[in-house]
Amino acid sequence: MRASAPGKIILFGEHAVVYGRHAVVTAINLRCYAEAKKSNSFKIHSPIATTGIDYEKHPYVSYAIKRFTEIKPIDGAEIKIESEVPIASGLGSSAAVSVAVLKALDAEFDAGLSNEEIFELARKVELDVQGIGSGTDPFVSTYGGAWLIPERKRIKLEKLKIIVVDSGERSVTAEMVAKVAELRKKLTDVVERVFDVMDAVSLKALNGDIPKLFKINQCMLKALGVSTRRIDEIVQKLEEMGIAAKLTGAGGGGSIIGVGSEDALEKARKLFNAIIVEPEQEGARVED
Ligand code: PMV
Fold it and tell me: Is the CB of 247 under 6 A from ligand 1?
C-alpha cells in the first residue's frame, strides 16, 4: 500500500516557542510518499540509497519500521520512498517520511492504527534519531492543517500562496537553539522581550496581516542572531520585489518564506529557482 504525509513550515514564532511563547505552523502541499509491500526481509529504496534496516543511511525509515514492529511483529517489508519535500531545509522532511512509512505499514499490514497512534510512533522516531525535538513536525505531518503551538489548537488561515527559497546554507537545529540559549543567558531581559514580541506576532497572525507580521518576525529572528548574510540578502531582494519574507525554522541557513502578489511570487520563483506552496489541510493518508 502507498501512503503519504505532508511537510510543514513554521510561519511565526520559531525559537520563541522553545521558551513557552506561541508559534504558528502549517502543513504544506508538498508530500512524502511511502509504499510498503509484504516481504520476507526488510528493504528500503529511496533516492539516497537501497539498504536493509540501516540506522545511518535511513535513520527515520529504519526507526519507523522498528517502532511499527514493536506494535505489530512482521517478517519483512519492502519500502519505497519518493519525496517532494526538500531534505534538511526546515520543511519537515524527516517527520513526513516517518509518518508516511508508518501510515503505509499500517495499511499494508492491517494494524488498525489511529492517527494518534501514528503520531505517537512518529514522535518516538523523532526522539530515537534526534534525541530531542518538540514533536511539532510529526504532529503537523500526521494531522495536516494549520496550528497554534503549544496549545495545538487548529486554526484557519487566510488563503495563502507562499514562496519557499532555499538559502543554500545548512545548519543544525540543536546548534541554533543553543546559540539563542547562550544569548538569552547573557541578555535575559532583552531576549525575553524579543520572545514576547514574537508571541504577540503569532497571536496577531490569527487575524491576518501576514506580510507586516512576517517582516517583524524576521527582524526579531535577526536580533536573536539566527539570520545570516545570505538570508538577509534574499529577504531584501524579495522585499524589493514586493514580497514580505522571513526565515523559517531554526535559521543559520535553511529556507526563507515569503508572501506577495501572484505576479511577484512568480517572478521571484524564477529568479531564485524557488517553489511556491500552499497550506495543506490533509495530513497522512493512504493513496491507493
Ligand atoms: O527548522 P526546524 O524545522 O528544525 O525548526 C526549528 C524550530 C525551533 O523553534 C528553532 C526549535 C523547536 O524545536 O521548536
Answer: no
